Amino acid sequence: MNLLAIAKNLDVEFLGNPNQELIGISSLENLNNKKICLVIEKKYICESLKNAGAVICPKDFVNQIKNENFLISENPKLTFAKLSQFFKPYLTNPIYHSNLNLFLGEKVSIGQNFTAGAGVVIEDNVAIGNNVTISHNVVIHHGVKIEDNVFIGSGSIIGSEGFGNVLDLESKWSHIAHLGSVLIGSNVRLGSNCSIDRGTIEDTIINSGVIIDNSVHIAHNVIIGENTAIAAKVGIAGSCKIGKRNMIGGMVGIVDHIETVDDVIISATSTVSKDLMESGTYTGIMPISKHASWKRIAFWITKLDKILKNLKYKRFKP
Q: What does pTM read for this prediction?
Protein backbone atom coordinates (compact mmCIF):
# COMPACT_ATOMS: atom_id res chain seq x y z
CA MET A 1 0.00 0.00 0.00
CA ASN A 2 1.14 3.58 -0.50
CA LEU A 3 1.14 6.30 2.13
CA LEU A 4 -1.94 8.07 0.76
CA ALA A 5 -4.03 4.87 0.67
CA ILE A 6 -3.05 4.01 4.24
CA ALA A 7 -3.89 7.52 5.47
CA LYS A 8 -7.33 7.36 3.83
CA ASN A 9 -8.06 3.91 5.26
CA LEU A 10 -7.04 5.01 8.75
CA ASP A 11 -8.64 8.46 8.45
CA VAL A 12 -5.48 10.27 9.61
CA GLU A 13 -3.37 13.10 8.25
CA PHE A 14 -0.20 12.36 6.28
CA LEU A 15 2.87 14.34 5.24
CA GLY A 16 5.33 13.45 2.50
CA ASN A 17 5.24 11.42 -0.69
CA PRO A 18 1.71 10.05 -1.25
CA ASN A 19 3.15 7.32 -3.48
CA GLN A 20 5.65 6.04 -0.89
CA GLU A 21 5.24 2.25 -0.99
CA LEU A 22 4.96 0.50 2.39
CA ILE A 23 5.03 -3.29 2.61
CA GLY A 24 4.93 -3.76 6.39
CA ILE A 25 5.80 -2.51 9.86
CA SER A 26 9.29 -2.34 11.35
CA SER A 27 10.60 -2.04 14.89
CA LEU A 28 12.84 0.85 15.91
CA GLU A 29 15.78 -1.59 16.02
CA ASN A 30 15.39 -2.78 12.41
CA LEU A 31 14.23 0.20 10.36
CA ASN A 32 13.46 -0.34 6.69
CA ASN A 33 12.81 2.18 3.91
CA LYS A 34 9.79 0.14 2.78
CA LYS A 35 8.23 -0.18 6.22
CA ILE A 36 6.53 2.13 8.69
CA CYS A 37 7.47 2.46 12.37
CA LEU A 38 5.78 3.82 15.49
CA VAL A 39 7.15 6.58 17.74
CA ILE A 40 4.97 7.36 20.77
CA GLU A 41 7.52 8.84 23.18
CA LYS A 42 10.21 11.48 22.66
CA LYS A 43 12.88 9.21 24.13
CA TYR A 44 12.60 7.07 20.96
CA ILE A 45 13.39 9.95 18.59
CA CYS A 46 16.81 9.28 17.04
CA GLU A 47 18.92 9.93 13.96
CA SER A 48 18.24 6.49 12.49
CA LEU A 49 14.53 7.26 11.97
CA LYS A 50 15.59 8.78 8.64
CA ASN A 51 15.91 5.17 7.41
CA ALA A 52 12.22 4.35 7.94
CA GLY A 53 9.78 4.35 5.04
CA ALA A 54 7.40 6.43 7.17
CA VAL A 55 6.75 7.26 10.83
CA ILE A 56 3.52 7.17 12.85
CA CYS A 57 3.70 9.85 15.55
CA PRO A 58 1.91 12.78 17.21
CA LYS A 59 1.94 16.08 15.32
CA ASP A 60 4.38 17.80 17.67
CA PHE A 61 7.03 15.14 16.95
CA VAL A 62 7.21 15.84 13.20
CA ASN A 63 9.72 18.70 13.34
CA GLN A 64 12.00 16.64 15.60
CA ILE A 65 12.19 13.56 13.37
CA LYS A 66 14.45 13.42 10.33
CA ASN A 67 12.08 11.76 7.89
CA GLU A 68 9.91 12.98 5.02
CA ASN A 69 6.91 10.67 5.38
CA PHE A 70 4.51 10.70 8.32
CA LEU A 71 1.16 9.43 9.50
CA ILE A 72 0.07 12.00 12.07
CA SER A 73 -2.28 10.78 14.78
CA GLU A 74 -3.67 12.01 18.10
CA ASN A 75 -3.55 8.39 19.24
CA PRO A 76 -0.53 6.85 17.45
CA LYS A 77 -0.79 3.50 19.22
CA LEU A 78 -4.41 3.06 18.16
CA THR A 79 -3.48 4.02 14.60
CA PHE A 80 -0.68 1.44 14.76
CA ALA A 81 -3.13 -1.23 15.97
CA LYS A 82 -5.45 -0.57 13.02
CA LEU A 83 -2.54 -0.46 10.58
CA SER A 84 -1.22 -3.82 11.80
CA GLN A 85 -4.39 -5.50 10.53
CA PHE A 86 -3.51 -4.46 6.94
CA PHE A 87 -0.38 -6.60 6.94
CA LYS A 88 -1.70 -9.85 8.43
CA PRO A 89 -0.86 -12.73 6.08
CA TYR A 90 -3.54 -14.63 4.22
CA LEU A 91 -3.52 -18.22 5.49
CA THR A 92 -4.76 -21.37 3.80
CA ASN A 93 -6.74 -24.02 5.64
CA PRO A 94 -4.39 -26.87 6.65
CA ILE A 95 -5.10 -30.13 4.80
CA TYR A 96 -4.91 -33.56 6.41
CA HIS A 97 -1.98 -35.68 5.20
CA SER A 98 -2.58 -39.30 6.12
CA ASN A 99 1.04 -40.36 5.53
CA LEU A 100 2.20 -37.91 8.22
CA ASN A 101 -0.95 -38.12 10.40
CA LEU A 102 -1.27 -34.35 10.64
CA PHE A 103 -2.80 -31.23 9.11
CA LEU A 104 -0.40 -29.22 6.94
CA GLY A 105 -0.56 -25.73 5.47
CA GLU A 106 1.35 -24.54 2.42
CA LYS A 107 5.13 -24.17 2.02
CA VAL A 108 5.97 -26.23 5.11
CA SER A 109 9.50 -27.61 5.42
CA ILE A 110 10.09 -30.69 7.61
CA GLY A 111 13.46 -32.33 8.25
CA GLN A 112 14.42 -35.97 8.77
CA ASN A 113 13.22 -38.24 11.63
CA PHE A 114 10.08 -36.20 12.25
CA THR A 115 7.39 -37.63 14.56
CA ALA A 116 3.90 -36.24 15.09
CA GLY A 117 1.05 -37.33 17.35
CA ALA A 118 -2.66 -37.25 16.56
CA GLY A 119 -4.36 -33.93 15.91
CA VAL A 120 -1.23 -31.92 15.10
CA VAL A 121 -1.76 -28.78 12.99
CA ILE A 122 1.10 -27.02 11.18
CA GLU A 123 0.19 -23.82 9.35
CA ASP A 124 1.77 -22.10 6.34
CA ASN A 125 5.49 -21.31 6.00
CA VAL A 126 6.63 -23.30 9.02
CA ALA A 127 10.20 -24.66 8.95
CA ILE A 128 11.07 -27.69 11.11
CA GLY A 129 14.56 -29.18 11.47
CA ASN A 130 15.75 -32.76 11.98
CA ASN A 131 14.84 -35.10 14.86
CA VAL A 132 11.79 -33.15 15.98
CA THR A 133 8.93 -34.76 17.93
CA ILE A 134 5.57 -33.03 18.22
CA SER A 135 3.04 -34.68 20.55
CA HIS A 136 -0.76 -34.90 20.28
CA ASN A 137 -2.96 -31.84 19.63
CA VAL A 138 -0.12 -29.36 19.14
CA VAL A 139 -0.67 -26.29 16.93
CA ILE A 140 2.27 -24.67 15.16
CA HIS A 141 1.10 -21.36 13.69
CA HIS A 142 2.34 -19.77 10.48
CA GLY A 143 5.94 -18.75 10.02
CA VAL A 144 7.35 -20.53 13.09
CA LYS A 145 10.90 -21.87 12.80
CA ILE A 146 12.01 -24.89 14.85
CA GLU A 147 15.60 -26.15 14.76
CA ASP A 148 16.97 -29.70 15.33
CA ASN A 149 16.34 -32.07 18.26
CA VAL A 150 13.25 -30.37 19.66
CA PHE A 151 10.45 -32.02 21.66
CA ILE A 152 7.04 -30.32 22.04
CA GLY A 153 4.55 -31.76 24.55
CA SER A 154 0.86 -32.42 24.01
CA GLY A 155 -1.54 -29.51 23.74
CA SER A 156 1.09 -26.81 23.34
CA ILE A 157 0.55 -23.87 20.98
CA ILE A 158 3.46 -22.13 19.27
CA GLY A 159 3.03 -18.79 17.52
CA SER A 160 -0.37 -17.76 18.84
CA GLU A 161 -1.38 -14.10 18.76
CA GLY A 162 0.08 -12.03 21.57
CA PHE A 163 -1.98 -10.04 24.06
CA GLY A 164 -1.55 -6.55 22.61
CA ASN A 165 -4.56 -4.22 22.71
CA VAL A 166 -5.30 -0.50 22.65
CA LEU A 167 -8.36 1.37 23.94
CA ASP A 168 -10.13 3.40 21.25
CA LEU A 169 -12.09 6.63 21.72
CA GLU A 170 -15.15 4.64 22.80
CA SER A 171 -13.13 2.75 25.44
CA LYS A 172 -13.32 -0.45 23.43
CA TRP A 173 -10.31 -2.67 22.85
CA SER A 174 -8.64 -2.65 19.46
CA HIS A 175 -6.37 -5.65 18.90
CA ILE A 176 -2.82 -5.26 17.55
CA ALA A 177 -2.05 -7.87 14.89
CA HIS A 178 1.19 -9.66 15.72
CA LEU A 179 3.30 -9.85 12.58
CA GLY A 180 6.45 -11.42 14.02
CA SER A 181 6.93 -15.12 14.62
CA VAL A 182 8.56 -17.61 17.02
CA LEU A 183 12.06 -19.04 16.65
CA ILE A 184 12.92 -22.18 18.66
CA GLY A 185 16.57 -23.19 18.78
CA SER A 186 18.06 -26.68 18.84
CA ASN A 187 17.84 -29.14 21.76
CA VAL A 188 14.81 -27.43 23.28
CA ARG A 189 12.27 -29.43 25.31
CA LEU A 190 8.81 -27.93 25.76
CA GLY A 191 6.23 -29.46 28.11
CA SER A 192 2.49 -29.97 27.70
CA ASN A 193 -0.10 -27.19 27.44
CA CYS A 194 2.40 -24.37 26.97
CA SER A 195 1.73 -21.21 24.95
CA ILE A 196 4.45 -19.24 23.21
CA ASP A 197 3.11 -16.08 21.57
CA ARG A 198 4.47 -14.68 18.32
CA GLY A 199 6.21 -11.29 18.37
CA THR A 200 4.43 -8.05 17.56
CA ILE A 201 6.99 -7.06 14.90
CA GLU A 202 10.23 -8.86 15.76
CA ASP A 203 10.24 -12.54 16.80
CA THR A 204 9.83 -14.30 20.13
CA ILE A 205 13.01 -16.36 20.60
CA ILE A 206 13.61 -19.54 22.60
CA ASN A 207 17.35 -20.16 22.35
CA SER A 208 19.11 -23.53 22.20
CA GLY A 209 19.16 -25.87 25.19
CA VAL A 210 16.13 -24.33 26.95
CA ILE A 211 13.87 -26.70 28.91
CA ILE A 212 10.32 -25.68 29.79
CA ASP A 213 7.88 -27.51 32.08
CA ASN A 214 4.10 -27.88 31.61
CA SER A 215 1.59 -25.00 31.53
CA VAL A 216 4.04 -22.17 30.92
CA HIS A 217 3.08 -18.97 29.09
CA ILE A 218 5.71 -16.95 27.23
CA ALA A 219 4.35 -13.70 25.79
CA HIS A 220 5.21 -11.75 22.65
CA ASN A 221 8.80 -10.65 21.96
CA VAL A 222 10.28 -12.51 24.92
CA ILE A 223 13.85 -13.77 24.47
CA ILE A 224 14.90 -16.78 26.56
CA GLY A 225 18.66 -17.27 26.89
CA GLU A 226 20.47 -20.53 26.20
CA ASN A 227 20.14 -23.46 28.65
CA THR A 228 17.56 -21.74 30.83
CA ALA A 229 15.14 -23.97 32.79
CA ILE A 230 11.56 -22.86 33.48
CA ALA A 231 9.28 -24.79 35.86
CA ALA A 232 5.51 -25.24 35.62
CA LYS A 233 2.93 -22.43 35.61
CA VAL A 234 5.44 -19.63 35.01
CA GLY A 235 4.15 -16.54 33.20
CA ILE A 236 6.58 -14.24 31.41
CA ALA A 237 5.04 -11.02 30.10
CA GLY A 238 5.89 -9.28 26.85
CA SER A 239 9.34 -8.05 25.79
CA CYS A 240 11.28 -9.64 28.65
CA LYS A 241 14.87 -10.68 28.05
CA ILE A 242 15.92 -13.67 30.15
CA GLY A 243 19.64 -14.43 30.42
CA LYS A 244 21.50 -17.68 29.85
CA ARG A 245 21.31 -20.53 32.38
CA ASN A 246 18.54 -18.93 34.40
CA MET A 247 16.47 -21.26 36.60
CA ILE A 248 12.91 -20.05 37.13
CA GLY A 249 10.85 -21.81 39.79
CA GLY A 250 7.21 -22.84 39.57
CA MET A 251 4.45 -20.19 39.47
CA VAL A 252 6.89 -17.30 39.05
CA GLY A 253 5.39 -14.20 37.44
CA ILE A 254 7.64 -11.83 35.49
CA VAL A 255 6.15 -8.47 34.48
CA ASP A 256 6.75 -6.94 31.06
CA HIS A 257 10.06 -5.48 29.82
CA ILE A 258 12.12 -7.17 32.55
CA GLU A 259 15.73 -8.16 31.90
CA THR A 260 17.77 -10.73 33.81
CA VAL A 261 21.49 -11.41 33.48
CA ASP A 262 23.05 -14.86 33.11
CA ASP A 263 23.01 -17.39 35.98
CA VAL A 264 19.99 -16.06 37.87
CA ILE A 265 17.85 -18.35 40.04
CA ILE A 266 14.30 -17.21 40.89
CA SER A 267 12.56 -19.07 43.71
CA ALA A 268 9.09 -20.52 43.23
CA THR A 269 6.05 -18.19 43.44
CA SER A 270 8.19 -15.03 43.28
CA THR A 271 7.00 -11.96 41.40
CA VAL A 272 9.71 -10.22 39.39
CA SER A 273 8.93 -6.51 39.01
CA LYS A 274 12.41 -5.12 38.39
CA ASP A 275 15.49 -6.01 36.35
CA LEU A 276 17.84 -8.56 37.92
CA MET A 277 21.28 -7.34 36.86
CA GLU A 278 23.45 -9.42 39.18
CA SER A 279 23.80 -13.20 39.13
CA GLY A 280 22.46 -15.05 42.18
CA THR A 281 19.33 -16.41 43.82
CA TYR A 282 16.27 -14.16 44.24
CA THR A 283 13.10 -14.66 46.27
CA GLY A 284 10.11 -12.49 47.01
CA ILE A 285 6.65 -11.25 46.26
CA MET A 286 6.78 -7.45 46.03
CA PRO A 287 9.44 -6.26 45.71
CA ILE A 288 11.77 -9.07 44.72
CA SER A 289 15.18 -9.00 46.42
CA LYS A 290 18.30 -11.07 46.86
CA HIS A 291 17.49 -14.40 48.57
CA ALA A 292 19.63 -13.70 51.65
CA SER A 293 17.88 -10.34 52.18
CA TRP A 294 14.47 -11.94 51.73
CA LYS A 295 15.23 -14.58 54.38
CA ARG A 296 16.04 -11.84 56.91
CA ILE A 297 12.84 -9.97 56.00
CA ALA A 298 10.78 -13.16 56.22
CA PHE A 299 12.25 -13.94 59.65
CA TRP A 300 11.13 -10.59 61.07
CA ILE A 301 7.71 -10.81 59.42
CA THR A 302 7.04 -14.04 61.35
CA LYS A 303 7.98 -12.27 64.60
CA LEU A 304 5.80 -9.17 64.11
CA ASP A 305 2.89 -10.45 66.21
CA LYS A 306 5.18 -11.19 69.18
CA ILE A 307 6.94 -7.83 68.81
CA LEU A 308 3.59 -6.04 68.76
CA LYS A 309 2.35 -7.86 71.88
CA ASN A 310 5.57 -7.01 73.68
CA LEU A 311 5.31 -3.33 72.73
CA LYS A 312 1.69 -3.17 73.92
CA TYR A 313 2.61 -4.88 77.19
CA LYS A 314 5.40 -2.37 77.89
CA ARG A 315 3.22 0.58 76.86
CA PHE A 316 0.33 -0.27 79.18
CA LYS A 317 2.27 -1.80 82.05
CA PRO A 318 1.57 0.27 85.25
A: 0.88
